[in-house]
Amino acid sequence: MIDSELRHSRVLICDDSTTNVLLLKALLEAEGLTRIETQTDPRRVLPCLEANVDTDLLLLDLEMPHMHGFDVMRAIREAMPGRADVMPILVITGTAAADAQTQALELGATDFVHKPFDQTEVLLRVRNLLRMRYGYVRQLQISEELERKVQARTQELTRATDAFVHKLAQVCEMRDIETGKHIVRVGRMARMLAEACGMPETICFMIERAAPLHDVGKIGIPDEILLKPGKLTDDEYLHMKTHATIGQSILNEHDSLLVQMAATIATSHHERWDGTGYPEGLRGESIPIEGRITAICDVFDALMSQRPYKNPWSEQDAVEYLVSQSGHQFDPKLVDLFVQHINDVERIRDECDAMA
After folding, report:
1. Cα distances (angstroms) measured from residue 48 to each of 45, 68, 96, 305
2. Contact, 242 vs 262, CB < 8 A?
3. 8 Å CB contact between 70 and 99
4. Closest Cα to residue 123, out of 55, 45, 29, 36?
5. What SS3 state is found at 222?
6. Distance from first CA to last CA of the chain, Å, rounded?
7. Dihedral sign computed on CA atoms, order 251, 255, 259, 265
8. How does pLDDT run across 190-217, given as a tens digit for each residue?
């Protein structure tokens, strides 16, 4: 008897001889197979396979009227290319010619039974091919289950990293001179500008989450410098500038692409388009685009925010500043896009101001 796990395998038999079809069907049923379909017209094989996508084995005669077995296999390969590679085909043939077998193998045949067929041989070959098919299907199921688990774990880790990044940004902001709404506004503006650049959704999402960590390095700046209400001395300003490299050291060498992007932003958001920025003096498009995007959003929002050392600017003045620094401090193309989407910027600020 056939293995218990194989008894519900779906088998299709096609032979123009009704006698052969009935003999094969009775033979397989006697072994315990319960899902057997038969055809004497080879033109019906492909429609049957398309209607029953879970067919596990095809027993196919070669020498038939209307459509040769070679033509049937060729039609299967053309109409169902992926299926032809994973569904075993047991060819039933009355010829022992080597070239015929070679052609059948090239078209997808897996094994052969010669007429007049021996019942024991047929059963052994059917059992072996069904075992092979079962093993493939089982392995595919295991792979799919593992993939689902990996995806679920990846999503879990992504959510955890996202939450970590957001909380860390909030901690940084608590040491700074503005409310947490600033980091939310910068993140959302950065996403808007990334979308305006035509970036993929995944990258836009990452920029929104990573941009709020642009000043994470300020954790390492003393309060007397960070919270000083007046103008910084030259030495104090030099110390303040180290927050870019401090931010990089905090976030660097992490497996998460999100944290890696945050490290890049923390390091590069004070670089200038003309090469006079810090910490590395990068110029033009050698500055990572996520850093260039964040720089514009951070400066614009800071200009319009209350600080101990200044009153908030008007939107018009803030926009004029960006335009005046286009090609100097900021990427000119990004400035143009930001100004073109100023209505979206206003909406973001209004929505963030309305947050509890």
Report:
1. 5, 17, 28, 70
2. no
3. no
4. 29
5. coil
6. 71
7. positive
8. 999 999 999 998 899 889 988 988 988 8
The model's pLDDT over 216-241, given as tens digits with 9 standing for 90+, comes to 888 888 888 887 877 889 899 899 99
3-state DSSP assignment of residue 128: helix
Positive or negative, the CA dihedral 94, 95, 100, 101 is positive
Ordered structural domains, the chain, with CATH: 4-146 (3.40.50.2300), 176-353 (1.10.3210.10)
What is the model's pTM?
A: 0.58
- Report whether pLDDT(94) > 90: no
Find all residues with CB under 8 Å of 171, minimum gap 6, and list them: 219
Residue listed under structure tokens 């920029």 = 207
pLDDT category at 158 given cuts 50, 70, 90 is low
Dist CA 297 CA 185 (whole Å) = 8
Asked whether the beta carbons of 122 and 24 are under 8 A apart, the reply is yes
